[in-house]
Write a structure and sequence with these properties.
The structure is a single chain. By secondary structure, the chain is mostly helical. 53% of the residues lie in helices and 0% in strands. The longest helix has 19 residues, at 97-115. The structure holds iron/sulfur cluster.
């Protein structure tokens, strides 16, 4: 029998079910940080990764990050003075690499010029002012902006990506707001989660929730869902320990409340 879900209001319940299945993915309790960091310049590395991952698989991004790190470009001054062609060659085959390269240089120059090269000084700005400033920079749209603010800056902003929309839409298709404009959905979700028990640590909750959603979509809720498992065995990071979940084989943890799954079962 379907354990019916009240759209939006049950976001906390979805989170609990995912977290119970995957365990902590991000933050101090996680065995490995969900966002793998390879350099000593984590905040800049996250900004670079957030730009590179647009329309690009993480495996490609991570290889590019390693090349940039090896070439010394994960530092603001070096990135700001980089040659666009050399940078484009290093981040290739990331999608739009010839546009992302000058975009990254422009972002680094902005940090160099406005904050004396301090990424932390930029990210420490008040949330709304920072969001406006980031959105004015090249190659930074809403999703990229919010990823940077949440994971590099620790701001309590809920990231909306295609995984988020897909997962929630499948679990509760009657809720029409999953396809709402970016900020409409983001605000609606934040309003629900702000009343959650973890409200005191909202940024940590949002970061963990986004990681949980991505893990669910990478393992189970693919374009062609694997509701009953086994989970997809994609290894999307070279970082050791990221294969922790490959042995899980209980199926998607959201089956009990997922309307799409229940409808599929009843039609068999
Ligand atoms: S039960 Fe299937 S359709 Fe529903 S969220 Fe899980 S993988 Fe996606």
């Amino acid at each position: 029998m379907t354990n019916s879900l009240h759209p939006l209001a049950d976001l906390q319940r979805i989170y609990t079910m995912l977290h119970s299945h995957f365990g902590p993915l991000h933050g101090p309790a996680a065995r490995r940080p969900w966002w793998p960091i390879f350099s000593e310049h984590a905040q800049l590395e996250i900004i670079v990764g957030a730009v590179l991952v647009q329309q690009t698989r993480w495996e490609t991004v991570e290889a590019a990050i390693e090349r940039l790190h090896g070439a010394g470009f994960l530092q603001v001054a070096a990135l700001a003075s980089a040659d666009p062609d050399q940078l484009a060659a290093l981040i290739r085959p990331a999608a739009f690499h010839t546009q992302k390269a000058p975009g990254l240089i422009a972002i680094a120059r902005h940090i160099q010029r406005q904050y004396a090269g301090s990424v932390a000084a930029l990210l420490n700005r008040p949330t709304q002012e920072l969001r406006t400033e980031l959105l004015a920079l090249p190659r930074i749209g809403r999703e990229t902006c919010d990823v940077i603010m949440l994971y590099a800056g620790g701001h309590a902003i809920f990231v909306i990506d295609e995984y988020t929309r897909r997962l929630f839409e499948r679990v509760a298709p009657e809720e029409h707001r999953w396809r709402a404009p970016y900020d409409v959905l983001r605000t609606a979700i934040e309003q629900v989660l702000q009343t959650a028990p973890q409200a005191a640590a909202l940024a940590a909750l949002y970061a963990e929730y986004h990681a949980q959603i991505n893990e669910a979509c990478v393992r189970y809720c693919l374009s062609k869902p694997r509701c009953d498992g086994p989970p997809a065995r994609r290894i999307y990071s070279r970082q050791q320990g990221r294969e922790n979940y490959l042995d899980r084989d209980e199926g998607c943890p959201l089956r009990a409340i997922c309307a799409t799954y229940q409808a599929t079962r009843s039609s068999r």
